[in-house]
Structure of DUF2961 domain-containing protein:
Amino acid sequence: MLGPLGNIFQLKDNIKTKRISSYDKTGGNADKIVIPAGETTEIARIDGAGIIKHIWITISTQDPFIRRNAIIRMYWDHEENPSVEAPIGDFFGQGWGEEYNFISLPLAAAPAGGRALNSYFPMPFGDGAVITIENESECDIDSFYYYIDYEVHPSIPKSAGRFHAWWNREITEVHPEEGETEWGVIAQQANNPTDQHNYLFADIEGKGQFVGINYYVDSPGPMWYGEGDDMWMIDGESWPGSLHGTGTEDFFNSSWCPNELYLHPYFGYARIPEKYGWMGRTHCYRFFFEDPIYFDKSLRASIEHGHDNNLTLDICTVSYWYQTEPHKIFPNIPSKALRINMPEITVRDVHKWRHEWRKALGNGKKLWGNESI
């Protein structure tokens, strides 16, 4: 297989390179647009056939949570329902409305401090493309700068799938009777011969191929948040499916409960918590460019939140794939109020947990912390 530079020297006929950007149409230096609070702005409308090759965006606003409060949507070939719908930060690899550097092959958040959002996903269309930004903030986006670089083609092959991206979020529930535990710390763990209670990150109908995921997990406790098997039910098959994983870190191509920054073009950990154990926010990512997940009719993809779904976690994902149209309409994106972060667990909270534990052990004078009830 040729790499990304493998055919750069090949000359092509009947292709034109175009750009839509926020440049100052007067010839001045005010190279930006304003997106008022509560409004949706169309940043690109392209006629005919072509391929979007690169998107660059940077934002200035008084809203510190704009990356979760602004929604990016993309429409192909005059469709009514978007093929891409996600908070703008999450789409480009920035969880929790935060700003931090992120490096991968198709997506990047570049300096200064991750504020430059880039996509290199190729996005083909046969009869038009539209990209919009909805500002659900109470503040105007005072400065929205962007490039959309694309190619104009005479036509697009019928085999060209359309690019899709879907954001999902769930505060997961503890399902097993043994309670919230990993590694059997509290009790022996049960088996999980189903994907019924898993966290769902893809629910697709049509023919296509799954190519990537950004996975943002906020853990309220210090226990390892993983041990969750990824499960793929292709074309309506039953459990255990064609592909069945062995643990969260394995799915993201790492091992042994990592808690360190690591940025590979295809996989990595772009953000890790700075607390005790794995408490706090971790951003994992995985792109399937050498090993896409193919499906002819449908794909249901999910992952356990802890073995046997026994952990309460705040999980948000953006999944990326190509497929034939029409696609299954996405559920309504949760309201702004339902997209806010969960409260941060602090040292004070942990101290209160210890206080309750001491009471459970009779308020002994020299309780250390490793005593069992």
